[in-house]
Design goal:
Blueprint lengths: L1 E7 L3 H8 L5 H4 L3 E7 L9 E8 L2 E13 L3 E7 L5 E11 L2 E12 L8 H29 L2
Antiparallel strand pairs: 1-7, 2-3, 3-4, 4-5, 5-6, 6-7
Helix pairs in contact: 1-3
């Protein structure tokens, strides 16, 4: 479905430090209004983020769980999207010279969400993921700039 990538003007460790900071997810994950809790040990396999999703007054509390992790290189998440099931989110970090390329791959996984996959939902997911990568790049590059001062 929605595979996107972005160049980040920072090394892979800077990207990983943002992904490993569970409290930063509301800064770059589109639709996340607030991170309510982060399990101890995040992003160890099996740990979860607990957050509030929403748009305006419409809100939903949900969670995302780490399913696979290779520290510094990849993070595989399962995000609940109630009531339609869950999605698999794969984030890969590749060294690109002195910079990084982040590859984001998101697909329906459980529940009726897989049946909703069509060109319209794919376009919506692509636009969302483009915005999410743009935000992630801004957060990573801002932190990298601040830490180099």
């Amino acid at each position: 479905m929605a595979v996107r990538n972005a160049l980040v003007r920072a090394d892979p460790s800077a990207v990983w430090s943002v992904l490993a900071d569970g409290h930063s997810y509301d800064q770059w994950v589109v639709g996340t209004q607030a991170v309510r809790a982060v399990d101890p040990g995040w992003p160890r396999e099996g740990t979860s983020l607990h957050y509030t999703l929403g748009l305006g007054p419409l809100q939903l509390n949900d969670r995302t769980t780490v399913r696979l992790v290779e520290p510094g290189k990849s993070l595989e998440l399962e995000a609940l999207v109630r009531p339609v099931g869950s999605v698999r989110i794969s984030i890969q970090i590749l060294r690109w010279g002195e910079d990084s390329v982040v590859v984001l791959d998101e697909h329906p996984l459980r529940g009726p969400s897989w049946a909703l996959e069509n060109p319209i939902t794919e376009l919506a997911m692509t636009l969302r993921n483009r915005a999410m990568l743009y935000r992630l790049v801004r957060v990573v590059e801002s932190r990298a700039t601040q830490s180099s001062r």
